[in-house]
Amino acid sequence: MSQLHDLCKFPTRPITVEYVSQLRSYLSSGVPATYTVEEAYNYENRVETEPATATTPLHLICTHVPTDLDEGETAVVDEMCDVLFEYGAGWSFTDVNNETPGCVLIRRGLKDWALYEKLVDAGVRAELLLRKVSEYDVEFVEEGEVVASEEAAAPSHNQQAFLESKLEYVDDALVTKERKDGVMMSWESDIMQLAADSITVNGSDDLCILNIGFGMGIIDTMLQQKNPRKHYICEAHPDVLAKMKQDGWFEKANVVVLSGRWQDELDKLLSQGTVFFDGIYYDTFSEHYSDMLELFDYVVGLLKPDGVFSFFNGLGADRQVIYEVYKKLVQIDLENYGLRCRFKEMRVPPELFKKGGESIWDDIKRSYWSCPIYYHPEATFMDFS
Ligand SMILES: C[S@@+](CC[C@H](N)C(=O)[O-])C[C@H]1O[C@@H](n2cnc3c(N)ncnc32)[C@H](O)[C@@H]1O
């Protein structure tokens, strides 16, 4: 343990500006703001192996900050975090409990503190910066340098592998046959209802809607109940398209099935320039945030001026603090397209958190959800918000 780490455990009260001066003096003398307890231990004990976990000064602050701070002390703790960020502290390092500093605050019931918001904002800044840096990074990657990890090549992450993998409809879920990745699960039905209501809110006799990603057809069944004039469904996977055929979706008078990836199908639709939607919903699989950013180009081209765009918001949902970072990030990104995004909150079923005993995730390879609240997004053009 170093002096920096000791300081971040608040050994004395009250917490005065002296803490900030001390912190500044350590950092300006060259101690990194990301210097971990594990590194300090290894240094003291001459251990040479790279530590697997990272307990940073921010972790210590979040773990040890007293809960009975007065106003002056709160301001000092806030400033200490600002100073750490100024010197390059990271928001996403994980400690021995696999917790980020934000996770520690959530566990301690301090999510309402301004400190938590600071960590989320740091995450947003870091993600934006990373995006900029990786744009340039591409130029420096030598051919053959990128070795795809097993995870990156898996159907859950790789669109081509997904489209080539066999799918299986089982009780309450659609999964990849081989790996049992959950493509869609019926616990999401309430979320689909929220979405179906959102994108048909301007419902009239003339309702024209687009859903991207059929999956189990949960939202499309709900959308049919709204009697749309035209209901477009874009779906890329051959097994899902076969199921849609079997269930008669191709024969429905008001349904147009766009068989293929949205990247190709929406391009054609946009070029036609004749179809515009009251509502668009996006819920695919094995795509990334960068794909959704590309989709925004089509959304602004295909959405009516008073239309509503929504999407399945699972961005970063396997860790609450990351979920909140993406919530802010997507708002910023949509604003760049002239869309204002608001969120409705919905409690997700408690079975999702059940540890031990029977669980929703029992037959699924990896649980993709661990947040108590779902943030349902509704984006509309700013002029009409
Ligand atoms: C999570 S499921 C959709 C679930 C759906 N919202 C429901 O209510 O059942 C995702 C679907 O998106 C499809 N999909 C994945 N990538 C796609 C793409 N690029 N274009 C069109 N569909 C895609 C998958 O084949 C899958 O059927």
UniProtKB/TrEMBL annotation:
Alphabetical keyword list: Cytoplasm, Methyltransferase, Nucleus, S-adenosyl-L-methionine, Transferase
Upper lineage: Eukaryota, Fungi, Dikarya, Ascomycota, Saccharomycotina
Compartment(s) of residence: Cytoplasm; Nucleus
InterPro entries, sorted: Arginine_N-MeTrfase_2 (IPR017408), RMT2/GAMT_Mtase (IPR051038), RMT2_dom (IPR026480), SAM-dependent_MTases_sf (IPR029063)
Task of the protein: S-adenosyl-L-methionine-dependent protein-arginine N-methyltransferase that methylates the delta-nitrogen atom of arginine residues to form N5-methylarginine (type IV) in target proteins. Monomethylates ribosomal protein L12.
Naturally occurring in which organism (per UniProt): Lodderomyces beijingensis
Principal cellular location given in the protein's record: cytoplasm
Family: Belongs to the class I-like SAM-binding methyltransferase superfamily. RMT2 methyltransferase family.
Domain RMT2: 153-385
Stated name of the protein: Arginine N-methyltransferase 2
PROSITE patterns attached to this UniProt entry: SAM_RMT2
Subunit comment: Monomer.
Record-listed E.C. numbers: 2.1.1.-
